[in-house]
Amino acid sequence: MELIIGEEKIAYVDGKKALVGEVAFPQVDGVIQITHTFVDEAYRGQGIAGKLLDALVAELRKRGEKALPVCTYSVSYFAKHSEALDVVRR
Question: pLDDT per residue over 49-71, tens digit each?
Fold first, then answer.
């Protein structure tokens, strides 16, 4: 799998460049919001969503930005990963 980091999306793709999973974090009204986390059914249960959020946390730290968790997975992720709360916008 290959990790692709974009301006408002981080995704994993397989060797054929087919989408495995993604997390979207567009800027809405001047606030970065984590709006969507998706993993293809064939890849669920392998920790890919967590790896996507881990990559997002690293990218936000690198950019010096904070985001507002909106989608249910991101809210759950940050509830379980207090070490990542430094990138959460309050």
Answer: 999 999 999 999 999 999 999 99
pTM for the complete prediction? 0.94
Closest by alpha carbon to 22, among 34, 30, 31?
A: 34
pLDDT one-digit tens code per residue, 12-28: 999 999 999 999 999 98
Query: Structural domain of residue 73, as residue ranges?
Result: 2-87
> What is the C-alpha end-to-end distance of the chain, expressed in Å?
33
Closest CA to 39 of 79, 87, 80, 71: 71
Torsions phi, psi for 78 (to 5 deg): -70, -25
Q: What is the CATH number of the domain that holds 9?
A: 3.40.630.30
Quickly state the pLDDT bin for 90 (edges 50, 70, 90): confident
Q: Looking at the 3D structure of the chain, how many domains does it have?
A: 1
Strand positions, DSSP E, 1-90: 2-5, 9-13, 19-24, 27-28, 31-34, 36-39, 68-69
